[in-house]
Design a protein that fits this description.
Blueprint lengths: L4 E4 L7 H16 L6 E4 L6 H10 L1 E4 L9 E4 L8 H7 L3 E4 L3 H15 L3 E5 L5 H7 L7 E4 L14 E6 L5 H13 L4 E4 L5 H14 L4 E5 L5 H13 L3 E4 L2 H7 L7 E6 L5 H12 L1
Parallel strand pairs: 1-12, 2-3, 2-4, 4-5, 6-7, 6-8, 8-9, 10-11, 10-12
Helix pairs in contact: 4-5, 7-8
The structure holds iron/sulfur cluster (SF4).
The site of iron/sulfur cluster has 14 residues, from α1, α4 and α7.
Length: 285
């Protein structure tokens, strides 16, 4: 393709939580010599190419526990609602919990704030599986999910004690915006647990730095990956020629003129190195 220069983000690619989930799921499926079926409750990570590889090795993705009544079920890195493990065991399934420790910190923070009597604000996407899991650790009367300060309802400011946590992949500015609003509106007690994942924060910061100085920016990762989509959004705010792509084939299909261009490349936390390398080789070929 003849790119002039490619700048690859040092932070590009798989985080430790995803690596851990992938390694363990491979160990489990490869160690099952007894023919017992291995399931993942939802895709193990938000990357279709990786999920396809695991399916080829025998992992079946299910949407609900009630679809199966025997075998091993893996809980993915995003975590699940509080009752899911018990429900799986009730159904006679073996459970392997691959929830990322940083997601567990978010779940425990919600639980702790709830036990201490705080009204809990989770800054994030209410439809994301991580948040569907985390919210179950609160009393449903005393928790709200907002994506930013503009979604805070007036009643929220009437609480005397408010706790704030964040989806692990949320942009730091959105989190701070909510905390700032609570302080500005003089909520008497605000307790904040910064549950943003450090890996994601670094990825976002470095990606924007690179996007600012290149002709084009490619952000590699699943279209269904929340952290990849956020990185791409942040990059597109500083570089209009930002493209979120999953494969080299997609870059080719865009028909871009890459000759003599400086190209920035980064990848979301669920993008394995073999996909990044395939794309780098294609770009420099
Ligand atoms: S991005 Fe962070 S929170 Fe999410 S799985 Fe990776 S390490 Fe865990």
């Amino acid at each position: 393709m003849g790119a002039k220069k490619i700048i690859l983000a040092e932070s590009a690619g798989v985080c430790f939580g995803v690596e851990r989930a992938l390694d363990k799921s491979l160990q489990i499926v490869e160690g099952k010599g007894d023919g017992e079926q291995v399931y993942s409750l939802g895709p193990i990570i938000h990357n279709p190419q990786v999920v396809k590889r695991l399916e080829e090795k025998g992992v079946k993705v299910i949407g609900r526990l009630r679809e199966v009544d025997k075998g091993t079920v893996m809980i993915r890195a995003h975590g699940v609602p509080v009752n899911t493990r018990a429900e799986a065991r009730r159904r006679g399934l073996s459970v392997v919990d691959l929830t990322c420790p940083i997601v567990k910190k978010l779940q425990h923070s919600v639980k702790k704030l709830t036990e201490e009597g705080y009204f809990v604000i989770i800054v994030g996407d209410k439809h994301h599986p991580e948040i569907i899991g985390a919210i179950s650790y609160a009393d449903h009367e005393s928790v709200v999910v907002v994506s930013g300060g503009d979604e805070l309802a007036p009643e929220v400011f009437e609480h005397k004690r408010v706790g704030v946590v964040a989806q692990t992949t949320i942009a730091f500015d959105k989190f701070r915006e909510v905390v700032d609003d609570l302080l500005i509106r003089e909520v008497p007690e605000v307790k904040v647990f910064n549950t943003i994942c450090g890996d994601i924060y670094n990825k976002q910061r470095e990606a924007v730095e690179i996007a600012e100085k290149v002709d084009l920016m490619f952000v590699i990762g699943g279209k269904n990956s929340s952290n990849t989509t956020k990185i791409a959004k942040l990059c597109s705010e500083v570089n209009l020629h930002t493209y979120q792509i999953e494969t080299l084939h997609e870059i080719n299909a865009l028909g871009l003129d890459l000759v003599d261009k400086t190209i920035g490349v980064t990848a979301g936390a669920s993008t394995p190195s073999w996909i990044i390398n395939e794309i780098l080789n294609g770009l420099s070929g």
